[in-house]
Structures
1.
Amino acid sequence: MSLRTYLTVICIFTLISLMHVYQRISMIEISYRIKQSERNLEQLLDRNRLLLYNVSALQSPMSLESRLPKIDYDFKKPEKILVAKSSAAGSRNGAVNVAERQNPLIRRMSRAFVLKTEAHATEK
Amino acid sequence: MYKSHSSIKKPPVRGRLFFIFFSFTAVFLALIARLGFLQIVRADFYQEIAHKNRRAIINLEPDRGLIYDCNLSPLTLNIRKDSVYAMPNAVTDKDETAEILGGMFSLNEDTLLARLSRDAEFMWVKRKVPTEEAGRARKLDLEGIGFLKENVRVYPNGDMAAHLLGFVDIDNKGIEGLEYFYDGDLRGESGYRLATVDARRRPVLLWEEDYMPERDGLNLVLTIDAVIQHIAEESINAAYQKHRPSNASVIVMDPNTGYILAIANRPAYRPDEAGKSAPERRRNCAVTDLIEPGSSFKIVTACALIEESLIKRGEVLYCENGEYNIAGRILHDVHPYGRLTFEDVMSKSSNIGVVKAAQRLGPERMYRYIKQFGFGHKTGIDLPGEAEGIIRPVSKWSKTSMSALPIGQEVAVTPIQLACAISAIANGGLLMQPRVVKEVRDKNGVMVKEVEPQDGNRILSRKTCDDMRWILRLVVEEGTGTKARLSRYSSAGKTGTGQRVEPDGTYSHRKFNSIFIGFAPAYRPRISVAVVVVEPKGYYYGGTVAAPVFADIADKALSYLGVKPDRT
């Protein structure tokens, strides 16, 4: 075997070996990065769990009841029952059809754009 | 003159060469022999050491299943906290490490130093430490000290439903309540990774040899409604603060399905700090404690009489003006009554009237109805520690038993049994099995198991229940239970004031159980409520102590449930 052939074989063999080693090292580095990503994911999940806990604690009836009196709202306990009926039929049983009180022109125009269902309001 | 070459003596060349060759060969053979010994004879030993160094079994801890209320609001959650461990053999400066960690985590330094001085690979320093403390410890970067994330069970509603939920130990194993009863479903299964690690003990995915994924625990969806639970907790807490009893329980139930909507006990505790509270505070009195039900037990007697057609509507009984001698025992009423209809006997809770009527039943029938109502055996509720109750067989009754049992003496029951009994009247005669868990789901929300309401056991006819409903309404409208009247709904129920038993076996004149059991609305009941207050201070009548708790809970719960008021 001539020297040139010998050197060529050696070089090729060396290159292949280097590529193999590089490939193995790359795979290990990728696995390290995957592990790091898993750790990052775990940290985010931990944070999510804490936030969920805080939200649940804030939404608990005890917490809401302690905070609601501090908010100025105008809720009243209903003294009478108000029933809103929604039906496709016209007025019946003497119930007043509020829609019919409107200007007839407006009523005709609104029919072009709204659903046919009309609202009845009765007081019980 | 020069000497000739042949006269100079030279050392033999072959001998020297042979000596060198022999020396090298000997050394070489020795090395080969040693190599052979290490790699062939002691191969297993060194391979084991190499594997230990390179292999690591990483435990994969499953997430414990969560517990939700019926509207899927979480009652329990999991978060993760750092646990601090030490590798004693890797800690070089044990004194300094013990001093630093002892001060940081409030541990005894001498004990910690002793443990660090042991020949061990691993030990816990402190588990599940607060995040700030763990952060400070991490920054110190102490040699031989490491951190591991562990799951911690938390309860976002504080002490609400504490006795129902129970709690877990440091290893997340259920100890009490639902956490214990359903521990098998909640726990899940651990997994593992058999990984090869590098020189810095970091697992390398490429070299993973084996992997078994963890199975997270299953989630429970309860029949409990968090809002009704809160209403019950607030009401019973107010009664507990006002009357300072030994303990108090309230159960809110859907009489038509047996679903428990709320169970609350006082005194309470925080499940995430269970170790700091006394064991008696952690007892779920609603299912574990036995009480004499007193006059609330008269519903059994009345139902039996009506069902057996032994009493007619409007039938008049003479109540002996408050004192009656029966079988050598003097029976008293709270107020002296003369002639009362049976309905008034019940609404005014006359002991004499009920006992007189009960004689028509006889012991056998009385016993049969008591058992039919579920007293004397467990209800089967899915909570641990349920007591059966005590009801002696007829053969062991004394001659005064038929003057005691009809008015709730000589019998021991649990609050849950009382709740089930009144629910049977409310729903038209079916004894339902109480349930707390409605569904079991996996972590993706897919249902694994559904607990359907079971068909109740018919113990009374509808007619009997209708008659009883009317009688129990009278109790609330005109009788001893007027404080159970609701502003917007009709209600029905029975008061009870049971005497406690002293250690010498006699009935106490100072210690009582205050009881109210009822349902609302009276004619289409949506909830039944049992309130038991044990040994209240000051006032002790059921109508005074327990009935207002019923009214408060029922009023708010029915409004919340959107039930249309039936009272103008």
2.
Amino acid sequence: MPGGPSHERRQEFEDVALPHLDALYNLALKLTRNPGDAEDLVQEAYLRAFRFFDSYQQGTHIKAWLFRILRNTFINRYRAAKIRPDEVDFAKVEAIYDKVVRGEFLAGKQPRSPEEIVMSGVLDHEVQEAIDRLPEEYRTVVILALVEGMSYREIASALSIPLGTVMSRLHRGRKQLQTALFEYARRKGIVRPPEGVET
Amino acid sequence: MRVSPNVDCSEFQTFVFHFQAGQLPEPDQQRLQDHVNGCPACADVLEFENAFLDVLQRRVRPTPAPPELKLRIREALAERAPERPGWSFAWLLRPGFAATIASLVLVLLLVGPWSPFAPVASGDGRTRAGSLRVETTATLVDVDCDQAGLTYAQQQACRNGRHVNGLKVADNKYWHLISAQAAARELMLDRRRRGERVRVEGELFTEISTLYLTAARPAGRMAL
């Protein structure tokens, strides 16, 4: 008795899984920072997902499941080969953010609003660079929350991490990202340098 | 992370991102809302963060997949035959399954009755070159399904006869299991136990990530 390919099964899988291709590719690109690697990563994730499609059918939230496979595939294939990024001193980031980024604006010491600054002076590729420089754990959660609009529970399911971890990574990721954008703006002279605070 | 009954400004500013996202339990969301309703300083903080969030969401645009990637994936799926339990013997040639069989043969040659080496009794501390005695706590999983991201409930429901239980010792780190003891074989085959934390003891052959199991218990008491 042959166990050959099922066209209908494959079509069913493509109908439910391929609509999420752009979202998966976007995250893959943010993880690998290389378009070629991102394409390979996404293709391998889809092949793995198809292989286990029969087992999956009992559940829902296929998008979270696909993201989980993508991330596991990334960990298996790419993360071990990457140079470990510098550790982030988050206490310093938080101090800068609270005193400088938020503090300066709320005290009226900066002439423009965040919107005016980031929209007018910081380029798109600089925003992308700021995201790419986030530690991978923060970067993933920030992308899934801000770009994909996933709920905290969906993110927790996709990454197999507790809800509290999603919240803390998003908190740290956003502060670090916003601090980095403020620093871009400061270097360009769009915001005044902060007084008496080392950045 | 829960919001305390009496929210102060420091706590509001700690939770402001999550308040914006509307992802907190309703009572927590309401406590924060009540605080910001009566605190001009935190209202300014919220306004600032709303402005920043709005900018981020407008500037952080997703990158669409290249048009040819979808075609490439469709072609790859068409070439790949889905795994199905059945009478096909092609699965014998799958690299993962063949590697598992090779590992079992190697370990049996080392520890089986025909081995030139005496079997190592539990607790006597002797190990062979390339192995070490271990005792640790790990999670019993269906290795293939776990690597595919399936939940423990889904793994318990997986009836694929080619899937056996293994140990998940860390994120994406697995040990295969073998044992000469009947009770241990039951542990390796019982899919209802997937997701269970177990305390295991045995001889770990590190090169092939295989644990020759000599004792195991649910994390809490000794069973074998």
